[in-house]
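Hypothesis: this fold can be encoded by more than one sequence.
Test: take the structure tokens below, design a sequence, compare later.
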């Protein structure tokens, strides 16, 4: 059970973050890092100095929620318990990563603010948290380095620790199946984005 080492109050955050990352094809450790950084709780409303509020587990600003009202999304929707706010956050991160300018981290930090002075502070902390979550994921799940087409999936450290001593022979990937390079700015010197392998894909 990969979540046994987490306190019960964090299990929903982690499960929902991973599920949303897989659904919207965003590196799972980035979603986990944003969720940890935002640190919201279901039902939480935090008043900002500019009169707006940050709402729910992923701390959506009411100004941003005003833009989402045309889709029928309300503050109560993102304040509620469950995975909806994490899905919406992963969707939003995907938009920033694919459409915004700058490196991966600047784009991901746009979740918080596009204003450079606020973005740079959020970005630095987001990178630190994402590295921690990458290590956590690598220890528990099969992941793949999305910067290398055709990369061999990793073996979780927990599995390696209990693996038999006999050598394990793995088949190489068929040469006839080309692997497409990921779209977007995925490279950075201090971090390798990871994709979870679900059902062998």
């Amino acid at each position: 059970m990969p979540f046994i080492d987490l306190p019960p109050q964090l299990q929903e955050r982690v499960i929902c973050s991973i599920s949303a990352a897989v659904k919207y094809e965003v590196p799972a450790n980035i979603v986990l890092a944003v969720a940890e950084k935002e640190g919201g709780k279901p039902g939480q409303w935090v008043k900002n100095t500019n009169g707006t509020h940050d709402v729910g587990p992923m701390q959506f600003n009411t100004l941003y929620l005003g833009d989402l009202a045309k889709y029928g999304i309300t503050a109560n929707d993102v304040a509620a318990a469950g995975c909806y706010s994490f899905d919406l956050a992963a969707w939003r991160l995907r938009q920033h990563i694919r459409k915004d300018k700058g490196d991966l981290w600047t784009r991901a930090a746009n979740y918080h603010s596009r204003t450079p002075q606020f973005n740079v502070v959020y970005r630095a902390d987001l990178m630190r948290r994402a590295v921690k979550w990458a290590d956590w994921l690598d220890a528990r799940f099969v992941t793949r380095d999305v910067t290398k087409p055709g990369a061999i999936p990793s073996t979780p450290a927990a599995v390696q620790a209990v693996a038999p001593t006999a050598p394990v022979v793995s088949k190489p990937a068929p040469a006839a199946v080309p692997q497409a390079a990921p779209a977007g700015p995925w490279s950075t010197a201090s971090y390798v984005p990871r994709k979870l392998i679900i059902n062998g894909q």
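The chain is about 45% helix and 5% strand. The two ends are 21 Å apart (CA to CA).
Hypothesis status: open.
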